[in-house]
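Onboarding guide, step 5: your first structure request.
Type a short instruction followed by the sequence, for example:

Predict the 3D structure of this protein.
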Amino acid sequence: MNQASTLLSMSEYVPLGEISPAFAWAAAELSLVRNGMVSREHLRTLGEFLARAGVATPAPALRAKRTPGPTKKQVRSALTTTIGDYLMQFPGSTVGEVSAALHLPIAEVTAASLPVNWLILQEDELVQPAQRVESDAIAATRDRARAALQAASLMAKPLSHQAYTELIKSGRVKGPSVARIVQLFGSWTDACNLVGVESGQPLRNNYSRTWNNEQLLGFVERFLREPAYRGASHQFDEWRKTAVSVQKVPSLGTVRNMMGGTWNDIRTTTLRYMRAQWKHT
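The system replies with structure tokens like these:
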């Protein structure tokens, strides 16, 4: 390396002794110090974080010996805010992608992203599994439906949805409702065929799907974009109460029934859907 190149390389770094204590402290906490030097790029990033934290910091070249540095909590909070803003723009990113985009160590991003990690995908979640494992609860409901249809077919042949409903109401058969069976199997006829029962007249549109899969993804996406609910499944119906005033919104139970799988399955599927939107633009 010639002398000009060496000087150019050195100009990209600032000695730790020439920057303010606030910057020096934050740089050390974030493991950004190399051989007593800090890169100017990292200094610029630190300046943004400290500004977000509301910490007054003098210019790097003006050392204020008695200026107290920001607390570790303030630095972490500022970093969390920055990561949250990034994830709102690029939902479904991995920790590695966030780290690369913000030029920060993966360890720091991993720790600071915990409060907003419902918008993060793990590396092994980026691709939809070839076969989704059905939740135990849904599998058990399917078994109940099969048993109920078989029992009802002994009392009504062919088994129409009207006859099944009357048997359920009278207590002679115990099982899921017609609407639930349609959600589980796609149609009344398909459900009867699956268990070897002769079905009656095909079900009218009374129990047809209100929402298609893309619409359901859209509802979950809107929920995940609301920071107040932190992507928690038990908060979905609380969010729904605020949304139904302007549009009919499915309940969490309906979303689970129609999309299938656990809440984490639904969340990751939706994040892949959200990720595809910014990946392909």
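Each response can be followed by summary notes, for example: The radius of gyration is 28 Å.
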